[in-house]
Amino acid sequence: MSGIAVVMLIVSITIVWGGLVASIVFLRRRPEVEGLAEDPDVVRADDERAARPHPSRDT
What we know:
By secondary structure, the protein is mainly α.
């Protein structure tokens, strides 16, 4: 491998693993909150949609 290829390999590995580390650090500092209250309109619409029969194709 040439020198440029090695440098590009190191840069790409740093970007990928650096992004992984940054996302882990971000989630450790600001974890996702469980149990957020959902919008009642959205819940009602989901319940209505679930009660309807599944659309099927008649072909």
